Amino acid sequence: MSALKKILGLLCIGLALFAGYYLYFDQAKPKFESGKPEDMIPAIIYTFILLPLIVGGLGCFGYYSLTGEYDEIA
Amino acid sequence: MSNYTEEPKSSLFTVIGASSVGTMIEWYDFYIFGSLASIIATKFFPTGNATAAFLSTLATFAAGFVVRPFGALFFGRLGDLIGRKYTFMVTLLLMGGATFLIGCVPGYEQIGFMAPVLVLLLRLLQGLALGGEYGGAATYVAEHSPNEKRGYMTSWIQTTATVGLFVSLIVIMITKKSMDKAAFEEWGWRVPFWVSLIMVFVSYLIRKNMHESPVFAKVKAEGKVSTNPLKESFGNKYNFKFVLLALFGAVMGQGVVWYTGQFYAMSFIEKVLNVSDQVGEIMMYAILFATPFFVFFGWLSDRIGRKWIMLCGMLIAILSYRTIYDKMYHTVDVKAKTELAEKTVKSAELKENAKTKGMDSIYTTSKEFSDGTTWKEVKTITLENGVAKIVDGKPKVDTKVTKVINSGDFWTLVFWVFIQIVFVTMVYGPIAAFLVEMFPAKIRYTSMSLPYHIGNGIFGGLLPAIATSLVTSAKKANEVAEAAGLAKVVDKPYLEGLWYPIIIAGLCFVIGAIYLDGKDNRVDD
Description:
The complex is a heterodimer.
Chain A: H1 2-34, H2 37-66
Helix pairs in contact in A: 1-2
Chain B: H1 9-35, H2 37-44, H3 50-82, H4 84-102, H5 108-111, H6 114-144, H7 150-177, H8 181-186, H9 191-208, H10 214-221, H11 229-235, H12 237-272, H13 279-290, H14 292-304, H15 307-331, E1 345-352, E2 359-368, E3 374-384, E4 387-388, E5 390-391, E6 394-395, E7 397-404, H16 407-428, H17 431-438, H18 444-460, H19 463-483, H20 499-515
Antiparallel strand pairs in B: 1-2, 2-3, 3-4, 3-7, 5-6
Helix pairs in contact in B: 1-4, 1-6, 1-7, 1-9, 3-4, 3-6, 3-18, 4-6, 4-9, 6-7, 6-18, 7-13, 7-14, 7-17, 11-12, 12-15, 12-16, 12-18, 12-20, 13-16, 14-16, 15-16, 15-20
């Protein structure tokens, strides 16, 4: 289980980085560039709320898993 | 053992009743804004005005998604410092006051830009209050419940979000039926906001006589109250890793299943299936039949554990969403029905547009089908100097389709929404007890509120926007392919929005299955 959690930890970090790239370059950036007022709020939310949450939160979760912080659970 | 298990049974039900009614009212308050969003937009956020459109989007997104976690932090901290009872009394009064005042704000025509600004501020207060309420109510009930009945007891709190939506639909429906359409659009839409004040007052009277949670009282008596709940919840690595686990292993998946089963289903029926006149009734029946399952799965979680009930709910939802939505789509798809050609009526007229003061060319087509379904399409072409106005290189045409479906199709849709809400009850019924048991008493309110409101407010709340964006992208890809003479890129674009809940819930299922423990059912630690 410990080895599996380490692998999943790495996967979570990779997923966090991929999600961060997708959220900014595929979702937020085109909305920022569109200049439409209705696009601004979703773009801001993707960039300043969802992106840090996923990159930071999931990345941190992956890091803890990789370093064995969750080994004693389950 | 703490003394709370020794309290008489009746007091437990009083605790559940007082907490659940108040929380239900808060959800009611929060949902009426969403249910009346289109009419609110016409009163406070006039179309064609960029700033008003910006404020409108801000009101929709910011209050629902961004402010709720801040409310969780603010009121969670208060709840861990001064007690659960006083904190969730404040959230109740704040929500009730903000809701009532939304119903009193004069429209844009009367006070100009002050109107959308005031509505936005009040909506933000609603979001803050909601962020603080749920954690308080769940913690309060859980800390009164015996270990072996906590899932059952807290499941009543879990019914409140759905019942709040149900009551909001009922109150709006009764208000609409009690007056003509013009009166409702003029002032009647304010009534559901005013009704809130009465409900909040009643709930306040019930709650004010309640005692503080025995677990918190014990913590306080022993001098173990946290001095800095935020730091101890999120600055302490040991606790923070459980906050992350609660979010990514349980609440994130629960949030998207909840929003798919209730709001995405409602939006899909209204905007994709075009059954806009009957969507309220379909949702009401589905909610009515499914709501008892919250209590059932809460009760079951006391017997077989909470973890696998929640994860099974997520797994079944992930595996069945595309099939369910495809079935819903084909149930009312008129292409598969027999048209009664002799009943088809077409008309065309020129009509003055009240907003632009120009002329619109309106083409109406009505069709009837052998199974009783009626279909109506209204195509409005905006004219400029007698010819169609060109926007983005194309004539500006607004097409609105509405369907009225027969009784058989109506109940089929009720069934498919009911099934989705049963998934909601599986993931949501046991989760309050699960979260409460995950964190120690002195920082429980703060620690459980934040992941709950991030999972529901942000991961769940963003679902309609992200799902719509995925559907739009799929449709555009098909249009580009068709224009180039190629085959469709996406076979069923209307199902593409489901990838968001499927992926999020799928990730949550894997994390939950591997990492969650779910064996600790004590709350007095």
